[in-house]
Amino acid sequence: MAKAPVLTPQADDFPRWYQEVLAKAELADNGPVRGTMVIRPYGYAIWERMQAEIDDRIKAAGARNAYFPLLIPMSYLQREADHVEGFSPELAVVTHAGGKELDEPVVVRPTSETVIGEYMAKWTQSYRDLPLLLNVWGNVVRWELRPRLFLRTTEFLWQEGHTAHATEADASDYARRILETVYTDFMVDVLAIPVVVGRKTAKERFAGATNTLTCEAMMRDGKALQMGTSHELGQNFARAFDIGFSAADGAQQLAWTTSWGASTRMVGGLIMAHGDDAGLVIPPRLAATQCVVVLVKDGELDDATTASGVARALTA
Q1: Long-range contacts: 188-194, Cβ < 8 Å, 24+?
Q2: What is the fold of 14-313?
Q3: What is the pLDDT along the chain (316 residues), one digit of tens a residue?
Q4: In sequence order, what DSSP letters do the residues of the chain get, joined into one string?
């Protein structure tokens, strides 16, 4: 009698195949709060290698790492109308702390344009301070109605870059540079996933952006997955947070800003782009385990159902 397959075949039920790979390769579990995720050591090792590769590229583009608070005053988000409208359905809001009601509600960051904009305004006085190129590694919370591990979770890990420039052209060029030399280069050369680079329609843009550039990848179920985005924010956030500077001729001007990010969604993309009916396939530069030795008794060949059997590293 033929043994049942270790995994549900992709052609039969791709979502179930995906969930089974996550479990049997010991990548992640559902967290205690709906939509949250526990990333297991093997899954986190893959994310760490992604982080290192992306971080090197971000630094090569001139940005420096910083850190900003997880909690943001509600009033910050309300300064940019499109931004607060776009994120309102996904916000987690804290109204009580320390045993009493807060004077002003605070938001668990869904993204950091507003809090970073507040400090960019403090740190920018002259054109000599520009461009200001920052990157943040951290977590964000967006209340997800239909969670799916790595792909859409209420809390996820990511990097978000934020920059301020003296001219619109410089901001536009930098947003495209990040898309091409950081995201596209990483996804093609390290993830080994071809991506289509394009522009979001006005309805699909990031809330508060004037232009959104994207890297889209095709998964094995025939669906596209957004892998990373880079946004031109025009002067919308500069106007809301008074990110101004003194130009070379002494005139006061508003800066032009960008933001860009990629998240643990890329781990899900990696699984769905390369995995097959036998399990997980990882490109060599991301594989935490390069080789697995399996003891097989004479006359027996068992399809291992542990992570070592389901996860295979490409060695070519």
Answers
A1: 190/50, 190/53, 190/283, 190/285, 190/286, 191/50, 191/266, 191/269, 191/270, 191/273, 191/283, 191/286, 192/274, 192/283, 193/217, 193/227, 193/269, 193/270, 193/273, 193/274, 194/218
A2: BirA Bifunctional Protein; domain 2 (3.30.930)
A3: 556 678 999 999 999 999 999 999 999 999 999 999 999 999 999 999 999 999 999 999 999 999 999 999 999 989 887 888 888 889 999 999 999 999 999 999 999 999 999 999 999 999 999 999 999 999 999 999 899 999 999 999 999 999 999 999 999 999 999 999 999 999 999 999 999 999 999 999 998 999 999 999 999 999 999 999 999 999 999 999 999 999 999 999 999 999 999 999 999 999 999 999 999 999 999 988 777 788 887 766 555 444 444 445 443 3
A4: -PPPPSS--TTT-HHHHHHHHHHHTT-EEE-SSTT-EEEPHHHHHHHHHHHHHHHHHHHHTT-EEE---SEEEHHHHTTSHHHHHHHGGG-EEEEEETTEEEEEEEEE-S--HHHHHHHHHHH--BGGG-SEEEEEEEEEE---SS-BTTTB-SEEEEEEEEEEESSHHHHHHHHHHIIIIIIIHHHHHTS---EEEEE--GGGS-TT-SEEEEEEEE-TTS-EEEEEEEEE-TTHHHHHHT-EEE-TTS-EEE-EEEEEEEETHHHHHHHHHH-BTTBEEE-TTT-S---------TT------SHHHHEEE---
Return the amino acid letter for 7: L
What six digits make up the tokens of 27? 């990548």
